[in-house]
Amino acid sequence: MSKFWSPLTASLVPYVPGEQPKDKTYIKLNTNENPYPPSPKAIEAIRNAAGADLRLYPDPTCDELIRKAAAYYGLRPEQVFAGNGSDEILAFAFAAFFDPANKVQFPDITYSFYKVYAKLYGLQAELIPLDERFRIPIDRFRGTGGVVIPNPNAPTAELVPLAQIRELLENNKEQAVIIDEAYIDFGGESAVPLISEYPNLLVVQTLSKSRSLAGLRVGFAFGSEELIDGLNRIKNSFNSYTLDRLALAGAVASFEDEAYFKETTAKVIATRERVSEQVAALGFKLTESKANFVFISHPSIAAERIFRELRGKGVLVRYFNQPRIDGYLRVSIGTDEEMDAFIRALREIVEA
Ligand code: PMP
Questions:
Q1: Buried-exposed string 59-94: b where 16+ CB fall within 10 A, e elsewhere
Q2: What is the pLDDT of residues 112-150, one digit of tens each?
Q3: Ligand 1 centroid distance, CA of 219 (Å)
């Protein structure tokens, strides 16, 4: 607390990101990064962009990147927004579309940044509890102040089928509906094709997960022209150059390497399926994951203890000291070698 802080700063409850340890090298399965490097084409493009042109401001409207992303989904550029990671886009979207007079709805167990944004903009939030199997009860989302659904959800990894997303949109036509598809490429079906039918639908995606570019900070939003205009109004009232030249170059190139994207995504999915079976064989319960992480719980060993013991063995996973999910761990899918080491460490803990 400082006397120089505004009442807003004093009131905030900021997000605490997953640990990026500096003390030693861990097998890092705690922040849902992709274990494979970005496409070599993206790395080369970033290298080529690291030159004299860095003295110049980047393209404030990200034209080339937006054209690429639009073409990828068969959209018009006016239906696409690019931002500095999907976190920034979500922050812009909360400001652009939600009114403090009404309650914005999101699941009670979900990406914890939503609560932070609601607080930042003085919004009221209505948290809708997940069902007993950690699924999002879509029919309970019928508010007046907007809806945010991550699909798949984090940290539970469960996917809402597209038919249910359509049902959600049918039930909520008068307010913005944000579908956060950070993990959609690991087995889900994107809601992007629905944006032409529902002018209130904003689909948010990222290059951080399935495209291995978390370090570049690039995200997208897809929606009607009126929603994209709203995001641009916020952006241009804040920082008109959201993406730097290196990020623009790398992001454009990542869309030019579909084969690499498909190959690495398929590897992550195959590893997830294998690890899910191995974890179940060690006695763990787990949700059905369509993401690049699994959400696991042991019936008799405390999650916090497993978390600590894994850390001692050099494996970092995510523990949530939070009601209802404090018996669970979220484990990102690494390479096969990393997951073999994780399973070995887990077996030692379970069998000790
Ligand atoms: N949404 C969800 C559900 C996430 O888990 C994350 C990653 N922590 C993000 C959005 C943000 O991703 P990024 O800002 O890297 O695009």
A1: eeebeebbebbbeebebebebbbbbbbbbbbbbbbb
A2: 999 999 999 999 999 999 999 999 999 999 989 999 999
A3: 9
Name the architecture of domain 7-37+265-351: Alpha-Beta Complex (3.90)
Summarize the confidence of residues 332-336 as an average pLDDT: 98
Domain boundaries, the chain: 7-37+265-351, 40-254
Q: Whose CA is nearest to atom 4 of ligand 1?
A: 182
pTM greater than the 0.90 cutoff: yes
CB-CB contact of 216 with 246 (8 Å): yes
CB atoms near residue 132 (< 10 Å)? 6
CATH architecture of 40-254: 3-Layer(aba) Sandwich (3.40)
Q: Would you say residue 78 has pLDDT above 80? A: yes
Spacing, Cα 148 to ligand 1 middle (Å) = 13
| CA atoms of 200 and 175, how far apart (whole Å) | 6
What is the C-alpha to C-alpha distance for residues 331 and 224, in angstroms, rounded to an integer? 35
